[in-house]
Structure formats: structure tokens, C-alpha cells
Write a structure and sequence with these properties.
about 200 residues, globular, alpha+beta, Alpha-Beta Plaits, 2 domains, about 35% helix, single chain
Length: about 200
């Protein structure tokens, strides 16, 4: 079984170039070859976000197909129920979920080693269908930003740290759920240090 910490934001709430920083594909120099410009997405765990890029954020806002999506409690409860259904259907073991007004985190254990994009994609796709059935399709035709963070939790310690992060470190969560089998302790070390086992 492999465990993953999965994160995604709701549509339009954290754009490329955002003032808070962002995980954004940017032109960069390939290490060791200063002449080669490449597009790189700085999304390795522990790596810093890109600095704000106001022109990119403005361009992303101009291309939006609808207003940003902000969840309320009814949305969060619907998403949580669907996450449980998706995990059960796929024979995945959902360990922790936190849903905030503009993003979610979850920790899930999966058999084998499926592509993390598939795991994230399934959770978002099934939640989208259920949200659209209950609340109507959004003007943007999507509830989510594209992609998301998929961090492999390489051992039980990292898994517990991920669960603790999801359960105890979220600002103003709408819903938080943790599997009864999982111990939750308030962490004392910074999240990035705990994931790295430091």
C-alpha cells in the first residue's frame, strides 16, 4: 500500500502568479546549461512557491470562464461523502480529509503504485459530478483548478505526519474527518520538517 497527501483548490481561488505565490510553470534555466531555457514547474515537496507574477495573475483572471468558487458547509459535506464513496469504490483507504472554503487536503492509502494524477483525478471527477447534481453546474464548467499537489508519504511516520497536518493544521476548516483507526496528535515541528522525517 502507498499513501499520498492530496491537495487541490477550487476554481479561480489560487491563480498562477498569485500574490501568495503559486505552483506555476515558469521559464527557467536548465541546471548545468545556462543557455537552455525550459519550462519548469517548481512543485517538489519542500520547494518554495514561485514569487508573485502580477501580469500572469491578471492574464489568468482575464481568461476565467466564471467567478471563483467558494465552498460552504453543504458543499463540504457533499464532497466528504463523495470522497468516502470514491475511496470505497476504488478499494482505497481514506485516512483523513479536511475541506476548507477554497481547497481540500486528504490522505489516502492505495494498493500498488497507481499514478497519483489518477488518484487526484478520480476524487475530483466524482466530487464534481455529485456537486453539479446537487448544486447545478458552475459557470466555469468545473469546480476545481487543474492539477493539484500529490505528495507521496514514504513510510508510516510520514503518513501519520500527513494525517496530523490535515486534521490539526487547517485554517477555518468547514469539515475535518479522520479514520477512527488513526491517532491524531497536535504536531510540534513544522510540517515540511515532519514530512522529511527531520
Amino acid at each position: 500500500m502507498r499513501a499520498w497527501l492530496i491537495t487541490s483548490t477550487s476554481y479561480g481561488t489560487w491563480l498562477p502568479g498569485d500574490a501568495r505565490g503559486s505552483v506555476t510553470s515558469v521559464r527557467d534555466r536548465w541546471p548545468g546549461d545556462p543557455r537552455a531555457d525550459v519550462r519548469i514547474e517548481h512543485d517538489t515537496p519542500g520547494e518554495l512557491y514561485e514569487e508573485p507574477i502580477p501580469a500572469l495573475a491578471a492574464s489568468a483572471r482575464d481568461r476565467m470562464n466564471g467567478p471563483p468558487i467558494f465552498f460552504e458547509l453543504a458543499h463540504a459535506e457533499t464532497i466528504l461523502a463523495q470522497f468516502h464513496e470514491t475511496a470505497g469504490h476504488r478499494h482505497w483507504n481514506l485516512l483523513a480529509v479536511a475541506i476548507m472554503f477554497n481547497h481540500f487536503h486528504l490522505v489516502v492509502r492505495v494498493p500498488g503504485d497507481p499514478e497519483p494524477e489518477k488518484i487526484l483525478g478520480d476524487f475530483k471527477a466524482y466530487a464534481s459530478r455529485t456537486l453539479s447534481r446537487r448544486f447545478g453546474r458552475p459557470a466555469s464548467e468545473t469546480w476545481w483548478t487543474s492539477g493539484g499537489s500529490k505528495r507521496k508519504l514514504p513510510d508510516r511516520r510520514a503518513e501519520l505526519n500527513g494525517i496530523n497536518y490535515v486534521a490539526t493544521r487547517q485554517p477555518n476548516p468547514l469539515v475535518v474527518w479522520v479514520a477512527e483507526s488513526e491517532a491524531v496528535e497536535v504536531p510540534s515541528a513544522p510540517y515540511e520538517d515532519r514530512l522529511a522525517g527531520r
